[in-house]
Specification:
mainly alpha; 6 helices; 2 strands
């Protein structure tokens, strides 16, 4: 392996570790538990660092940091049964987000990426709830919370995405 590849791999691992930690913290400590849905529920801001990671540093960092960060939350907070589902669903969200936004930022791409990630979240958790609870109707009550999570992250991340993308380009090229 040549020296630049080692630097790139080290940088990617470091970024993934930082964003995994941020995703965990934003999920664990900035949340509201919902007593109204059939199976409980949680609204959190963990999608913010997930989106930032995917937009600024790509699909690999987005997938790793989002999936592992939120699955760790599930494992450490009593939502253990959800951890495997979260790992797959949120990793896929980060991967898709990073692939769609790619190297060129545009408002249309970011909106498409948020919509795609939101669709994955809603469909993924709906399917997970059906598998866990054997009921096709009860998981419908979780959809508004998932929409709210994605919308809150979008409102915060979309306006700052161009600045983050520019800052990330500086980090990658100067490091």
């Amino acid at each position: 392996m040549i020296q630049t590849e080692k630097k790139s791999n080290t940088r990617t691992m470091a970024l993934a570790a930082v964003f995994t930690s941020l995703t965990y913290v934003f999920t664990a400590f900035i949340n509201i538990r919902l007593p109204v849905t059939a199976n409980g529920g949680l609204i959190h801001l963990g999608n913010i660092p997930l989106f930032i990671a995917a937009i600024t540093f790509g699909s690999c960092v987005g997938a790793i940091s989002g999936g592992i960060g939120m699955a760790l939350f599930d494992l450490l907070s009593g939502w253990t049964v959800w951890a495997p589902f979260t790992l797959v669903i949120v990793s896929l969200m980060g991967y898709i987000m990073g692939k769609i936004t790619g190297t060129a930022y545009s408002l249309n791409r970011i909106i498409l990426a948020v919509t795609a990630a939101g669709t994955v979240k809603i469909a993924g958790y709906y399917i997970a709830e059906v598998l866990l609870y054997g009921n096709f109707a009860a998981p419908l009550s979780s959809i508004p919370g998932n929409v709210l999570q994605i919308s809150a992250a979008a409102v915060i991340v979309i306006p700052i995405a161009p600045l983050l993308k520019k800052a990330a380009a500086g980090i990658v090229h100067t490091a």
